[in-house]
Specification:
heterodimer, A: alpha/beta, Rossmann fold, Oxidized Rhodanese, domain 1, 2 domains, eight-stranded mixed beta sheet, B: Ubiquitin-like (UB roll), five-stranded mixed beta sheet, 3 helices, 5 strands
Chain lengths: ~400, ~90
């Protein structure tokens, strides 16, 4: 049940009673006058949807389950990979290859068997978002892409459900509470997403493993406060977490009267978010159109003796992890100054980790007048899998 | 006016690793232009082709979003802090 004045989705469910075991389990909560028996009953009555059982969703789900949130919905369609385990605490080594929702169910039901878990093993889309989100009191956004973030935001605004937002990259985290009755929404903060490729993903740019622990627990804290109707939620404020310098600061987020979602309300329904996030100009427009070369094709042409310059546009610390033999390191942000040193008469193949930075580099090379240039599709990851297993994957 | 521009880690590597960079200008736009003159790689990450702020990068002048305070034309004062926040989607 949510009765915070800033929310618009008050539950009509009567608060359930607490069993004897629950009184003991939640004893430390019951000692807090801000929570007490009534607050704990509100938590038990609450229905929270967590979108994404990854870095943010893991600590958030664990703490919400431990806190006694009565019903937790989880949306995720991924399987557990070994690269998840550096930060996604819902899953363990034995879970590699299992659906994330299976390991999440095992872990959460052990944390608190009183919690009702509702698993949604699907990709959240414009076709199902309103139906799924509509079943819950509030949403906790733990997704890892802009497409789903705008989808979650718009669905929350349309349904009047608070959206407890968190996002992370490298050492920086952000958290806020959007889509409350009087507060701003995600579109008020970021009216449009960056074009694809401009902002790297955590898979490409990295993330400190404990950072989602910090931000996800802040999201869980905000969710609990909203359910209890206590404290001052992060409505109209964006919390910036700097894990490198250990600084937390909050900046103001205004509700934008021109916002199509929560301002003018011209957004009457969900839209095509793939298209919304695929458009836009800026530094990475037209990346889909750059010439590509398959790793196997490149290997065959090099093996046949064809002269091809191989340029690695990753960072020096990635070069230290692994590299393709015969490559030359030119980090992407140094490419412009290195242009005079690249032979214009010999074809150029550019690679990075997964193919985004190399596509940006190829577009820059084409703009600079290079003619035979390709981005290696899938980067060194696919090279490792398809051409040379001796090249480590990371 | 001398101001300090705070960069998120995703952008600081394009400013030789600096998280806080001094800049000068009478307005936010001039301070940002001073920053991008010294670190040209930042330019395509901070402003569009017309020199205006991107909709996915938010500029806070002493904790206030400049979109509601005059945009790049907002005047700065000695010692102001300009915080640049870029949309990130990791989770």
């Amino acid at each position: 049940m949510i009765d915070a004045p800033t929310t618009s989705a008050p539950s009509v469910r009567p608060p359930p009673t607490l069993e004897r075991e629950e009184l003991l389990r939640y004893g430390r909560h019951l000692l807090l006058p801000e929570v007490g028996i009534n607050g704990q009953r509100k938590l038990k009555a609450a229905r929270v949807l967590i979108v994404g059982a990854g870095g943010l969703g893991s600590p958030a789900a664990l703490y919400l389950a431990a806190a006694g949130v009565g019903t937790i919905g989880l949306v995720d369609f991924d399987v557990v990979e070994v690269t998840n385990l550096q930060r996604q605490l819902l899953h363990g080594t034995r879970d590699i290859g299992r659906p994330k929702l299976d390991s999440a169910r095992d872990r959460l039901s052990d944390t608190n068997p009183n919690v009702r878990l509702e698993l949604h093993p699907v990709r959240l889309t414009a076709a199902n978002a309103l139906t799924i989100i509509g079943q819950y009191d509030l949403v906790l956004d733990g997704t890892d892409n802009f497409v789903t973030r705008y989808l979650v935001n718009d669905a929350c605004v349309l349904l009047g459900k608070p959206n407890v937002y968190g996002s992370i990259f490298r050492f920086d985290g952000q958290a806020s509470v959007f889509a409350t009755t009087d507060g701003p929404c995600y579109r008020c903060l970021y009216p449009e997403p960056p074009p694809p490729g401009l902002v790297p993903s955590c898979a490409e740019g990295g993330v400190l493993g404990v950072l989602p622990g910090l931000v996800g627990t802040i999201q869980a804290t905000e969710a609990v406060k909203l359910i209890l109707g206590i404290g001052k939620p992060l409505v109209g404020r964006l919390l910036l977490v700097d894990a490198l310098d250990t600084q937390f600061r909050a900046v103001t987020v205004h509700r934008d009267p021109a916002c199509p979602a929560c301002g003018t309300r011209e957004l009457q329904g969900l839209v095509d978010y793939e298209q919304f996030c695929a458009t836009g100009g800026g530094a990475s427009a037209g990346l889909d159109a750059v010439p590509q070369i398959e790793p196997r094709d490149l290997a065959i042409r090099r093996a046949s003796g064809e002269s091809i310059q191989l340029i690695d546009v990753r960072e020096p610390h990635e070069w230290e992890i692994t590299r393709i033999e015969g490559a030359r390191l030119i980090p992407l942000h140094r490419l412009e100054t290195a242009l005079p040193t690249i032979d214009r008469t010999t074809p150029v193949a550019v690679y990075c980790k997964a193919g985004t930075r190399s596509a940006l580099a190829v577009r820059d090379l084409l703009d600079a007048g290079f003619r035979q240039v390709w981005s290696v599709t899938g980067g060194i990851v696919r090279w490792s899998r398809e051409v040379d297993a001796a090249v480590a994957e990371y | 006016m001398p101001v300090t521009i705070a960069l998120p880690s995703v952008l600081s590597r394009l400013a030789d690793g600096n998280r806080a960079v001094p800049a000068t200008g009478e307005t936010v736009g001039e301070a940002v232009a001073d920053l991008t003159r010294r670190f040209p790689s930042l330019s395509t990450r901070l402003v569009d082709d017309a020199g205006e702020p991107y909709p996915f990068v938010t500029y806070y002048l002493n904790d206030e979003d400049i979109r509601f305070a005059g945009g790049f034309g907002a005047r700065v004062r000695d010692g102001d802090e300009l915080t640049i926040v870029s949309a990130v989607a990791g989770g």
